[in-house]
Amino acid sequence: MLEKLVESLRNAPVVKKGDYDYFVHGISDGIPALNPKVLKEISEVLDEQLDLSKIDKIVGVEAMGIHIATALSLETGLPFVIIRKRQYGLPEEHEILKHTAYETSKLYINDLKEGDNILLVDDVVSTGGTLTAVINELKSIGVNLVDTVVVVEKGEGKSIVEEATGEEIKTLVKLDVVDGKVLADSLL
């Protein structure tokens, strides 16, 4: 299961951002080009592995959660909402300040309200900064976070988010960068 994703991750280049080893992959960066068969594999596995019967909306985080949410929406017929980097000023808009290993920025939530049953999807959890901030804001809105799924788990980010939020994070692939090479294994 997830053979295409794992193989493509193992072949991903690695660049340094200060002391941080950053892998470059279509699922997390949009470059190199993402093979649609990899994205289809991910959406099929998520549809098979999750109970989506109680989900009202799939929620993805801009930028790299967009293609995952889109593929899963097409696979399941569920609508999706994107947590955006752009402020719209719509009524009920919620602002999130997030900190990662390499940046501090803002995100904005629209079209989610108390009681919505959501599935949160994202590309990578590494330092946990983005996901922790997003989950905490979603909780403050009062949505029902039915599941949170991240395609790639790198480092200790998953446990950091789980400890900070009290939420279980499901991941598909565990990845580490060792000596400039990506080591990846399916968790399913």
TrEMBL record:
Subcellular location: Cytoplasm
Pathway(s) annotated for this protein in UniProt: Purine metabolism; IMP biosynthesis via salvage pathway; IMP from hypoxanthine: step 1/1
Reaction(s) catalysed (UniProt annotation): IMP + diphosphate = hypoxanthine + 5-phospho-alpha-D-ribose 1-diphosphate; GMP + diphosphate = guanine + 5-phospho-alpha-D-ribose 1-diphosphate
Keyword Glycosyltransferase among record annotations: yes
Pfam entry (one): Pribosyltran
EC number(s) given by UniProt: 2.4.2.8
An example Gene Ontology biological process: purine ribonucleoside salvage
Top EC group: transferase
Keyword Cytoplasm on entry: yes
Gene Ontology terms: cellular component: cytoplasm
Keywords tagged on the record: Cytoplasm, Glycosyltransferase, Purine salvage, Transferase
Domain Phosphoribosyltransferase, chain residue ranges per copy: 37-159
Gene3D superfamilies: 3.40.50.2020
Molecular-function annotations in GO: hypoxanthine phosphoribosyltransferase activity
Record's subunit section: Homodimer.
Function: Catalyzes a salvage reaction resulting in the formation of IMP that is energically less costly than de novo synthesis.
Family: Belongs to the purine/pyrimidine phosphoribosyltransferase family. Archaeal HPRT subfamily.
Protein name per its UniProtKB record: Hypoxanthine/guanine phosphoribosyltransferase
Native species: Methanobrevibacter olleyae
Gene: hpt
